[in-house]
Specification:
The structure is a homodimer. By secondary structure, chain A is an alpha/beta fold. Helices cover about 35% and strands about 15% of the residues of chain A. At the A-B interface, helix 1, helix 2, strand 1, strand 2 and helix 3 of A face helix 1, helix 2, strand 1, strand 2 and helix 3 of B. Chains A, B: This is Aromatic amino acid aminotransferase C56E4.03.
Chain lengths: ~500, ~500
C-alpha cells in the first residue's frame, strides 16, 4: 500500500488538532493505566466487574456440522441440532465476559477484531487494512460520511439507492451527485463523465463514491470484475475514496436452475481486494448472514481512517455492545463454528436464498412476465428483483414531444401511473416498493442526465427474502393488478 | 404539561420538512405493512427469522431474593444464588426473540420501552414524557446535542465536566459556556448572571443547559432540591432546555458511618420530576447499575423531542441491539427480578458504593487530610471524591499581584504545580485524574469568571469505584507523594 490518499479531508468541526488537544488528556491517562498494569489506578470511574449481575451468557446456535446447515436448520425445526456457546465468570472465558461487560476501546474488543480480521483474510485480499467494529452498516456509513464530509461537499452514489443513507449525508451538509446505474450496476463511463466535466461552480469535485457492488439495493445489480477495475481506475485518477457497502457479499448466486456451485467456488473479488492505495473503505455486517437485530458489523480501512473512526466512536456511541461481540468471538472461536463452520453457514445460506430467488423468478415468469407488461433481470446477488414496468404500453401514458422542453424536464406521466399502480396493489392486498422512494436527490441546477430520473422510475422492487408462502400469494396478485391496470381501468382511489 | 418549549430549534441540516419529504416514503411503506398484517408484503428486504441461527439466549443473573443481594453476590462468589433468564424460539418468549433479532423501530422494542417506562413511573413524576432507548449516555447526549444544535450555538454546562461530552458538541459546531460549580454543584446565581448579561455579539442566547445533578463527574457534587428548583425556574424564565444526564441517580448516599437508610427511603427528586413544561430531557443508563459494556440506556423527553430523536436514530445507529433489550425485558419481566427486585438490587448496590465511599474517606482522613495539604467534601452520590490540593502552601507557588493583570488572566502557577504532582504520583506508582482534563473549553473573549479556571484547577479526581485493595494501596501513596511534594522537592523527571 502506498501512502494514504491525498484527499483525506476531515470534518472541519473535528480536526485532528482539536481532537489531539482535547480528548487525549483523558485517553492518555486511560492508556497509561492500561499499558502499566503495575500502576495503582484511582483514576477511572468504572464499575468493578464483581458488581455486574451477570454470571453467564449462553447462546444456543445452529450446528454447522452438516454440509448444508441452513437446509437442516429449516427442515428439522425445533429438533435441528444445536450447540451452546457459553461464556462464564467461572471458567476460562471469564476474561472475555468481564471485558465485554466493561467500558472498552472504541474500535471493539481485541478478540472481536481478531475474528473479523480472520473473516477478511479468508474472503478478501487487503494487506495493511485494519478493522473497526460497528453497530451495523447504517451506523458505519453515517460515521464514514461524518469523517469524510465538510458541509457543502458533493458525494457520488448510485442514482437509485437505499433512501436513509443519502438522508444521513444531507444531515452533514453533503449534496449528492447521482451516477447512472443499469442492470450491471453503476456505469463507469457515467462516473468518469461527471468527474471530467465537473463544474467548479458546484463546489469542489467529489472525493467520495458510495456504492453497493453486490445485489445493490434496490436494483439487485452486481458489478462485474471488469466494472470494478474500471471504477477503481477512475478513483485513482480522480483521487476518490470509495465507500464499499457490501451487505449482500455472501449472497452471490449462480444462474437460475443450476445447483448452487458457489457452495465451493470463490466469492467475487471485492473492491477492497483490488485496493492498493488505501482508498477503499469497506463496510460489512452480520445483519444478513446472522440477524439484523444483532446490530453488529465492521469497517475495513486504511489505518488513517481507522484512527479517526475510533475518535468518532469515542465521542458518540462508544465501544460496541459486549453481547454481540461475545457471540461472534465464541461463534468463530475454538468452541464454536470456527471459520470453516462460518463458511459452511454462509454458503448454505446463499444456496437457500438462491432457491428463494429461483422460486420467485418462476412465479414471476408464470404470472407477471406473461402479461407482457413487465420484465426483470435475474439478480446475481442480494434479496431483490427490480421489475421494469412497461408503462409506455399503458393507454393513458403520455410523452411530450422531444423538442418541446429542456433536457432535464420530465416528459412523461410515469410517476403518476406508477403511483396508481402502487395504490392498485395495496387495494388488492399487496405491498411492493415503488422505485420513487429510492431516487437519490440531485441538485436540479446540475441535472444533465440524458433523461430525468422521474421518466425512468417505472420500476418496482420485489424481495425474495420472505417466505415461499408470501411469494406464492403475492406474485399472482401483482400479475392480476398489472393486467387490470394496463386494461386501462380508471385509477383506484 | 403545557405546549412544547418555544425554543425547540432543530438542526438546520435536518429540518422536519426535509425529513418528512424524504424519509417518510419508505417508512410509510413499512408502517402500512406493520399496521395491516392482512397485507402480503414483498416490500421489506428483511431476512426471515427462520434463518437466524440463534434458538435460545440464556442470561444467568444474580438472584435478588435476599434483602441485600449485592452483598450476597460478592460474598458468596461462585456459589451465590442465580436465576436464568431464558428466551427461546420454542416457547412463549418466541415473539420477543424473533422481534429482538429483526430490524426494529428506532425507539426500541415495545417491550423494552415498557420496562423503562415502569422504572420511570416508580422513581420519577413525569406525566406525558415518553421514552426512547439509547446505546448508553454518550450516545444519548450526542443525539440530543445534534437535535438541539445549530452550528454557532452556545450551550451551558458545568465548568468542570466529563471531557468527551463537550468534544462531541464541538463536532456539531457548539460553543460551550461554563457555569461555575461549587461543592453543591452548579451555582444557580451564576447561571442567571450569564443569561441576564448575555452579549448578543456572542450569537443567540444559550437555549440548552447540560448538567449532571447527582454525583457530578468529576466534582462528585449533588444539587440540592432547592438548587434544582432555582435552576428550573431560571430555565423557565430564559426558555432553556435542560439535558439532565443522571448516570449516578441510583448511587445516592447518606452521611458517612450511618447505616444506609436509603435502603428504604426515596431517592432525590430528579429535574424530570419537577418538569411541567416538557423542557427537561432526562438521560438514564444501565451502565452503572448493571454493566457498562451493555451499552443500553434511555432518554425520557417531551414527545416532540422523541419524534426527532427517532428520526436521528433511523438515520444513524438504527434500532438498539436486541441482546440488551432482551436482557432488560426478561430481567424486569414476570420471570425475572421484576421491578421490586430491580429496586432491591439498586438499593443494595447503592449501599455497597456507600461502604466503598466511607472506606475511601477513612483512608483519606488518615493518610491525606492529615498531611494538611489536601481536603475533600463528602460526596452524596456517584463514584468520585474531588480532592482540593492546597497548592498555595507549596514553597514554589507564585501569585501575581491582583492589579498587575486583567480579570481573566492566569495569575498563579497552579497548572504547573498540579502537573508536577500528577507526574510525582505516576513516578510512585499511582494514577489519579488531574482536574485540568475536565475543564470545559470556554471562549477566552468572553471569559468573565471572577478568576480563571486554571487558577482554580488545584483539584484531583479520585474514584472509589475500584476494589478496597486498590484504595488501600493507592491512598497512602497519595499522602506520601503530597508530603514529599510540599516539602519542596524539585520536580521529578
Amino acid at each position: 500500500m502506498t501512502a494514504a490518499p491525498q484527499f483525506i479531508d476531515l470534518n472541519h468541526h473535528l480536526s485532528p488538532e482539536t481532537l489531539a488537544r482535547k480528548v487525549n488528556p483523558l485517553k492518555d491517562i486511560i492508556r497509561v493505566v492500561t499499558n502499566n498494569p503495575q500502576l495503582i489506578s484511582l483514576a477511572n470511574g468504572d464499575p468493578h466487574h464483581s458488581l455486574y449481575p451477570i454470571r453467564r451468557i449462553d447462546y444456543e446456535v445452529a450446528s454447522v456440522a452438516s454440509d448444508d446447515p441452513v437446509a437442516q436448520w429449516k427442515s428439522l425445526g425445533a429438533s435441528a441440532p444445536t450447540q451452546i456457546l457459553s461464556t462464564s465468570k467461572d471458567d476460562e472465558s471469564k476474561r472475555l465476559l468481564n471485558s465485554a461487560l466493561a467500558y472498552g476501546h472504541g474500535a471493539g474488543l481485541s478478540e472481536a477484531l481478531r475474528v473479523v480480521t480472520d473473516i477478511n483474510i479468508k474472503y478478501h485480499t487487503a494487506p495493511n487494512h485494519v478493522v473497526t467494529m460497528t453497530l451495523g452498516n447504517a451506523d458505519a456509513i453515517t460515521k464514514c460520511l461524518r469523517m469524510l464530509a465538510t458541509p457543502g461537499d458533493s458525494f457520488l452514489a448510485d442514482e437509485f439507492t437505499f433512501a436513509p443513507m443519502p438522508m444521513a449525508a444531507e444531515a452533514h451538509g453533503v449534496n449528492w451527485v447521482p451516477v447512472k446505474i443499469d442492470s450491471g450496476g453503476l456505469v463507469p463511463e457515467e462516473l468518469e463523465r461527471i468527474l471530467a466535466n465537473w463544474d467548479p461552480k458546484r463546489g469542489r469535485r467529489p472525493h467520495v463514491l458510495y456504492t453497493t457492488p453486490c445485489g445493490q439495493n434496490p436494483t439487485g445489480s452486481t458489478l462485474s470484475q471488469e466494472r470494478r477495475k474500471q471504477i477503481y481506475d477512475i478513483a485513482q485518477r480522480y483521487d476518490i475514496i470509495i465507500i464499499e457497502d457490501d451487505p449482500y457479499y455472501f449472497l452471490q448466486y449462480d444462474a437460475p436452475g443450476s445447483e448452487p456451485a458457489h457452495m465451493t467456488k470463490d466469492f467475487a473479488k471485492s473492491l477492497l481486494s483490488i485496493d492498493v492505495d488505501g482508498r477503499v473503505i469497506r463496510i460489512d455486517t452480520f445483519s444478513k448472514i446472522m440477524a439484523p437485530g444483532m446490530r453488529l458489523g465492521w469497517i475495513t480501512s486504511h489505518p488513517a481512517f481507522h484512527t479517526h473512526l475510533v475518535k468518532f466512536i469515542d465521542l458518540s456511541t462508544q465501544n460496541p455492545h459486549g453481547f454481540g461481540q461475545i457471540l461472534i468471538v465464541e461463534l468463530l472461536g475454538p468452541h464454536g463454528w470456527q471459520l470453516a463452520g462460518f463458511d459452511r453457514w454462509v454458503r448454505s445460506l446463499c444456496a437457500d436464498y438462491q432457491r428463494r430467488r429461483d422460486f420467485l423468478l418462476a412465479l414471476f415468469e408464470r404470472d407477471v412476465a406473461s402479461t407482457g407488461f413487465a420484465s426483470a433481470d435475474v439478480p446475481e446477488a442480494g434479496m431483490f428483483i427490480w421489475v421494469r414496468v412497461d408503462v409506455e404500453k399503458h393507454p393513458r401514458f403520455v410523452r411530450a414531444a422531444d423538442d418541446a422542453t429542456g433536457a432535464n424536464v420530465v416528459k412523461t406521466n410515469t410517476t403518476t401511473l406508477m403511483t396508481e399502480l402502487f395504490d392498485a396493489c395495496i387495494a388488492d392486498g399487496l405491498v411492493i416498493c415503488p422505485s420513487s422512494v429510492f431516487i437519490l436527490p440531485a441538485d436540479p441546477r446540475y441535472d444533465d442526465m440524458p433523461s430525468p430520473i422521474d421518466d425512468r422510475s417505472n420500476f418496482i422492487r420485489v424481495t425474495f427474502a420472505g417466505s415461499e408462502e408470501t411469494m406464492a400469494a403475492g406474485i399472482p396478485i401483482l400479475g392480476r393488478v398489472l393486467k387490470e391496470f394496463f386494461a386501462g381501468s380508471s385509477p383506484t382511489k
